[in-house]
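User: Here's a chain of 352 residues. Predict its fold as tokens.
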Amino acid sequence: MGNVATRPEEQKWQDLIQQELKPLVSNIDLEHHYPKHFLKQLGENGWLRSASLSETDVSLREFRLMEDVSHACMTTGFTLWCHLAALTYVRHTTNRYLQEEVLPSLEDGAVLAGTGLSNPMKFYGELERLLLKAKRTEGGYVLSGTLPSVSNLGEDHWFGAVAETDDGGRVMLFVPCDTEGITMKEKVDYMGINGSATYRLKFNDAFIPDDFVVSEDADAFVEKVRPYFLMYQIPLGLGVTEASIHSMKKISNKQAGCNQYLPVQPEELEEEWNVRRQEVYQTIEEGITWETLVKQRLGITYLTLKAANASMIHNGGAGYLNISAPARRLRETYFLVNLTPTVKHLEKLLAN
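Assistant: Prediction complete.
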């Protein structure tokens, strides 16, 4: 299996996870602490830079990084996914201002960003209408409407957005959160993932200049980048599944080894995890496609659900504590099930 990340590089980010992220996991999960400093460190260490690397090499390195982060904390893995999705938009745009002035800051960790494509992805899946309207004006667009949930945001962050134009087309933009006319309201009442800096955004005639236009043809652009959007979600499940397997193995001898009589065992989960993981890495190396990734994302999500549930049962009463790692991973997994595209959306795509 190919992996562009060097062993010293992997060891360095694994050390950072142990030293900087793991002590925060409980606060991230239970106190909705947003791991902004940790996310910035990933960029500061050069692990998000794409210069001199092929597109495949960038994907392999960032995929591997996502796995390790999600193994420790899927909320943080999710916020990293948000940032990588935003990076994908700017890496693929032909807008020179975004490429030359914004992309370096995103890759170096100076600026963090969210996706903003939950509603558009559902729109393109014929599940929702577009929630933003864009009116053409001199030098840019004026946006109105509301996005109910956009994650990995803050006053100094950016995010992607797709809006319907006056002529019935769709435009994609990259928007700073401090734009005049945008109101942000934080949301922290979820079952889990409350440390993800998720906000409700209201646009009241917010002016977005042409310099921030990702594409005047959002339909074609989203079709181009959506495989990356989906690909970067898969290591969320791989990381949580691996952590769940490890937790079951760790307690296999407790209470006279009675876990051996349970119907789901860590060894069988690990075997499936290895097969599915190998398949995804092979897909990245050979060339990602939307159709292949839909199947892989769905299969790994169901495996993650099975592993997190089994871990709760194997851990018994200790896992039933709200502060336990198995309980946290179960909450994280139910978020993954409902992360756009949700499992029911993915099932619909496969059925059609």
